[in-house]
Amino acid sequence: MVDTISPLHSTQLSVAAFLKQSKQWRNSVLGAFCFSAEAVENQRQADTNVPCMHVPMQRLDAVDSVCEVWHGSGALTQGQSGAIHYRHDEDVLLGVIELPEAMFAADIDKTPLQQATESAYRQIFALLDALRYPYLFRCWNYMADITTHSFGLERYRQFNLGRQDAFLAHGRDVMGNAPAACAMGFGQSGSVQRLLPTLHIAFLAGRAVPLNIENPRQISAYQYPQQYGPRSPTFSRASLVGIRQNEVLFISGTASIVGHATLHPGNVVAQAREAIANIRAVLAEANRPASQPKFDLASLYYTVYVRRPADLAQIRAELAHCVGDALTAVYLQADMCREDLLLEIEATAVHTTYSAADRR
Question: What is the dihedral of CA 221, 302, 276, 240, to 10 degrees?
Fold first, then answer.
């Protein structure tokens, strides 16, 4: 008989609802990513047992904040390694790390953000090596003022330097086998107050070898020309992971980019349409090894990052047109890694591979 306990999956709750859940419910939680434009320090202390990343981003489609809560299966083990708080089951490990840039002093070679990024990823890889979860599936990266220049270099490019330095230092591939990822910015908007910049990273890793997926409409990010910075971004367009009787698809932050160039600058509806076209192309690649399609636009859960809150209604209408009534999405105010991008979309889906006969 096949084990029918759901493996890795996510649910969405407001921060308040998340904090009110029972201890028994929280025992199944690998970790959570909470997005709120309000102060979160009190929430941070409310449940220290659950690894929780707090990102100062405003939710645009509802008054409530939102927590993306990831669940595991069976008995969970938790711990702390350096600045990382983590939990894992037999298959998957989730960790969060938040490093204030003030911990690092600028030197001739490396900026504080570059050092914070390298330190965070070095800690991640050391933990995964120690606990034998060798494969990094998905990373979420959030930083302040992502396109601002400091120390003579755009901050996103500083981040890319630090991330790739850590990958290389641990013998990790920077081309072809990188995890799915997003890198988003936040700044002073709405009720968010200027904070000392903190780098926020969450990650999922495991023991199954992922299938990393590229988009034929785009040049792979790790092959971008030098006009985008001294080091290319280190991520794949998507990652497909088999966990027990399920396949989990992680689609990286996806925008209106074809080849390596931004399309439709200034036109948010056209950018939304182009981003969905890119996601559709990734789905085709993810479905290619299967005898029949498993993933489609309607099966995905979307997180949509929006630069200008005034664009929300147009974006929602275009996504509803492209995806249909099954659209399930959360919308957050954020800055993209290019100033001419008005939105970015990431998505996740779970497909169960066993049949009805397997359940008997």
Answer: 50
CA angle 313, 316, 320 (to 5 degrees): 140
335: DSSP letter: B
Distances (CA, A) of 98 to 32, 160, 179, 199: 13, 17, 19, 6
With contact defined as beta carbons under 8 Å apart, do 350 and 244 qualify?
Answer: no
Closest CA to 252 of 270, 239, 263: 239
> Which has the higher per-residue pLDDT, 254 or 106?
254
- For 110-141, the pLDDT digits (tens) are 999 999 999 999 999 999 999 999 999 999 99
What pLDDT, on the 0 to 100 scale, is given for residue 353? 76
| CATH class entry, domain 9-359 | alpha beta
Q: What are the boundaries of each domain within the chain?
A: 9-359
CA terminus-to-terminus distance, the chain: 6
Measured CA to CA, the distance from residue 64 to residue 51 in angstroms comes to: 21
Judge contact between 68 and 33, C-beta under 8 A: yes
Task: Give 11-43 pLDDT, tens digit per residue.
Answer: 999 888 888 888 888 889 999 999 987 755 444
Token pair 């900026």 is found at 111
In 155-299, which ranges are E strands? 180-186, 198-206, 211-213, 238-243, 246-254, 257-258, 261-262
CA–CA dist 161, 260 (Å, integer): 19
Q: Is 226 helix (H, G, I), strand (E, B) or coil?
A: helix
Mean pLDDT of the chain: 90
Give the residue carrying structure tokens 């070095």. Answer: 122
Task: Give the position of tokens 């800690």.
Answer: 123
Counting other chains too, the contacts that 255-260 makes at CB distance below 8 Å and 24 or more residues apart are 255/336, 255/338, 255/341, 255/343, 255/344, 255/345, 256/341, 256/342, 256/343, 257/218, 257/341, 258/217, 258/218, 259/217, 259/218, 259/219, 260/218, 260/219, 260/224, 260/225, 260/228
Phi-psi region of 259 (alpha: psi -120 to 50; beta: other; left: phi over 0): left
Residues annotated as part of the active site: 344
Query: CB–CB of 308/269 below 8 Å?
Result: no
